[in-house]
């Protein structure tokens, strides 16, 4: 299946403002990039690099005045729903690969040490492995109420559990935090997710967040916000939490005027 994914941002800047962008589909993973276009208006130089997690980042300086940044790509994806192994076992910590250990530690928004006791209280009796991670997703889906604007860029997973409200990134970060508390490596994922064969709210298309858990020797996708297998996930970035995969990081104070996101069959 071919998808068209992308976004367009319009910013108003009072002065030249350095910025870093993470909106491109990753060049690796289950999807394949067939074509992509990156355009900045007014024209300015930009450079790309890969960060420590392998995410593609673009550096550019927003000009004074109105700026429009446009990204559009055609990607090929599997036309089947997420593949989850319900029998995937939990890997003992002493047997985990070295590069997964980072994703057991607390991070900027995922205080797994703070939620450790609650995680074991809620999920300690569930079978370890895929069933336990799914139990985490079920609890987050059922106990966190989606409310646009209920959290801000500084809200932690622990605060979301306490308040019982959040947005897409909060669902993922609570799932990540509980999994790490239970000694399951978990990493935060941002990406594009089309509404194919899915029941979704009548909200405008936006970026999506989910997480991946390391079970049985590989990473598996889990999505507590939707909590159902979906078709066509296109990964933009992976990291410890949302701080590592921010779509736009501006070193100044430009004002967002408009944002559009698309993810649909091509």
Describe this structure in words.
The protein has 266 residues and is an alpha+beta fold. Helices cover 16% and strands 36% of the residues. The chain has a 4-stranded antiparallel beta sheet, with no helix packed on it. The protein has a 4-stranded antiparallel beta sheet with strand order 4-5-2-13, with no helix packed on it. Strands 11-10-9-12 form a 4-stranded antiparallel beta sheet, with helices on one face. Helix 1 (116-123) packs across helix 4 (168-181), helix 2 packs across helix 4 and helix 3 packs across helix 4 (168-181).
- What's the shape? globular
Beta-strand content bin: 35-45%
The CATH class of the largest domain: Alpha Beta
Gyration radius, in Å: 19 Å
Topology, number of strands? 14
């Amino acid at each position: 299946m071919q998808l068209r994914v992308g976004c367009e941002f319009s910013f108003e800047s009072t002065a030249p403002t350095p910025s870093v962008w993470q909106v491109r589909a990753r060049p690796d993973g289950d999807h394949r990039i067939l074509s992509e276009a990156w355009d900045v208006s007014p024209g300015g130089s930009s450079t790309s690099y890969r960060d420590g997690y392998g995410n593609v980042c673009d550096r550019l300086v927003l000009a004074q005045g109105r700026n429009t940044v446009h990204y559009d790509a055609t990607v090929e994806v599997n036309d089947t729903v997420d593949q989850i192994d319900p029998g995937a076992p939990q890997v003992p910590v002493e047997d985990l690969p070295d590069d997964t250990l980072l994703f057991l530690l607390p991070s900027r928004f995922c205080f797994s040490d703070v939620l450790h006791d609650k995680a074991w209280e809620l999920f300690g009796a569930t079978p370890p492995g895929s069933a336990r991670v799914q139990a985490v997703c079920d609890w987050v889906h059922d106990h966190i109420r989606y409310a646009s604007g209920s959290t801000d860029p500084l809200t932690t997973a622990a605060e979301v559990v306490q308040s019982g409200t959040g947005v897409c990134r909060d669902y993922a970060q609570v799932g990540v935090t509980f999994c790490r508390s239970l000694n399951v490596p978990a990493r935060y994922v941002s990406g594009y997710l089309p509404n194919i064969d899915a029941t979704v709210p009548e909200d405008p298309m936006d970026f999506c967040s989910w997480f991946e858990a390391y079970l049985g020797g590989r990473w598996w996708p889990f999505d507590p916000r939707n909590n159902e297998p979906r078709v066509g996930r296109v990964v933009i970035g992976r990291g410890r939490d949302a701080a590592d995969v921010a779509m736009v990081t501006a070193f100044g104070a430009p004002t967002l005027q408009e944002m559009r996101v698309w993810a649909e069959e091509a």
